[in-house]
Amino acid sequence: MIVAPLTDFGTYLKLHPLFERVEQALITLDFSNPGEKIYIENDKLIAIPSFNKGRNTGEALLESHDRYIDIQICLQGEETFGWADRQTCSSIVKPYNQEKDITFYNDEPSTYFTLKPNQFAIFFPNDCHAPLIGSGLIKKVVFKVKVESNLHNF
After folding, report:
1. CB 110 within 8 A of CB 1
2. What fold is seen in the domain 2-145?
3. Close Cβ partners of 81 (under 8 Å, ≥ 6 residues apart)
4. Neighbours of 97 (CB within 10 A)
5. What residue ranges do the domains of the chain occupy?
6. What is the pLDDT along the chain (154 residues), one digit of tens a residue?
């Protein structure tokens, strides 16, 4: 997992060939339609704007993804995340859904952190994360970056 201000995103461009496209999309795309999937590179890079009311810690389940890296960028409000190393999560609530690339867990996060506007978090397949913890409206964009076969060992 990586957490940093958006101004530092360029530091991480070499972690994945499509991260540069994410940086370009942040400058050129409109994220004002929540729930709309914006296909930037077919299914290899997708942006999904999200406008949601924050929820309490008990409502936020840990989740993990096998095929995609999540880059979650806070646009407005404050969003707290729970985090746990996937290897420590064993209490599966909803088994892996291949279509949605998601598994849900009932394990407790080992830590929490909060993103403010213009900050981001990158979650790799070994990161379980519980998003949307907070109060009020949280506006964000989630970039789904497909993991390439030679990049599985994050």
Report:
1. no
2. Jelly Rolls (2.60.120)
3. 72, 109, 112, 113, 114, 115, 121, 129, 130, 131, 133
4. 10
5. 2-145
6. 999 999 999 999 999 999 999 999 999 999 999 989 999 999 999 999 999 999 999 999 999 999 999 999 999 999 999 999 999 999 999 999 999 999 999 999 999 999 999 999 999 999 999 999 999 999 999 999 999 764 444 4
